[in-house]
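Can't attach files on this board, so I'm pasting raw text. These are the components:
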Amino acid sequence: MGKVRVDLNVSLDGYATTTDQTPEDPFGQDWTRLTGPYVATRTFRERVLGQPGKGTTGMDDDYAKAYFEGIGAEVMGAGMFGLHEHPGDPDWQGWWGPNPPFGYPVWVLTHEVRPSLEMEGGTVFHFAQDSIEDVLAKAKEAAGDLDVRVGGGIRTARAYLAAGLVDRLHVGITPILLGRGESLWQDLRGLEAGYEVFSETAPSGVVHLTFSR
Amino acid sequence: MGKVRVDLNVSLDGYATTTDQTPEDPFGQDWTRLTGPYVATRTFRERVLGQPGKGTTGMDDDYAKAYFEGIGAEVMGAGMFGLHEHPGDPDWQGWWGPNPPFGYPVWVLTHEVRPSLEMEGGTVFHFAQDSIEDVLAKAKEAAGDLDVRVGGGIRTARAYLAAGLVDRLHVGITPILLGRGESLWQDLRGLEAGYEVFSETAPSGVVHLTFSR
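---
Top answer:
Structure tokens for the assembled complex are below.
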């Protein structure tokens, strides 16, 4: 049986989202600072940016590699798929183009009833109106011996964490203070119970902290 | 010229105070969990508990030793001295008994006008109605080449941090989620600017993170 995994980048004050996006700078400087060491890794540049042979190696890259390994299915929130910006649009197929970087089935938690979308490269998007527990059960069944990722957004991740359904939480803590946004840690008092905690600091300054069971 | 230093224990979600105190358990379980690795060090047991030769050595103890070294004066809030519980009481001399563990002058930020208190062992408590900047200037002058500690509480520490007056902030981050209390990080967006950040993880699981300039 696989594990249920969450991986996130958060600031030292716990924020997983940023607030300084503008039309001219749609990611924002804070996002660049928050995710910089991850985006700079060889794995991210190869797997996501299509730039083979470039990027950093070492601890941040080891975590980036692990992020992509062993996943057989994913669950994500409606917002992450883009349904908040594109409600009721039958032509919307997500942010990732015709060949999304998943390569496995993805369940999108939404109140919208939509047919499944079969994309190139093995990704199939399913749209589920069930409880987070029932959707996870479907994803686990599809993943078989592989792991299930709870991909995001932050509220979806927090809901699965609060429900005790996550087996491994890895956070890359970037030592910056954002002061506002969505906090990963909100309403998760006592989460550590039942987990082993391990942490180490990369030369980039990112503290990699893992709760696992 | 000495540095201005702040040392605090915080939870992974940033809380520096705990909320589960009861008359039967005046420290509370959360405080024990938050400060456990620090209280267990050889330095804390020798210096604060009077138990020489006992306690842990290693990274947590190295930080505990550094905490006590090189301080020539301290600034603290009225609450830390006990003036919120003992307002207007001329007989109140702080929590620490006749021989407090400071051994140097301590300025207490308060609206109360009180005469200075000369204690055993070199500690003198001064009560200051000035701005945080002016009080710090007095403490710096008294400390000479040694450092000044901003001792606490958390609101006093945050006020000095927000005003850009702290040269070194060391936080021992205990990997537990308290979910409530006073957050160290509140309203400190961008604090990292102008600081070098260094972190490392002790075998106890505590992440020692230091902002210095």
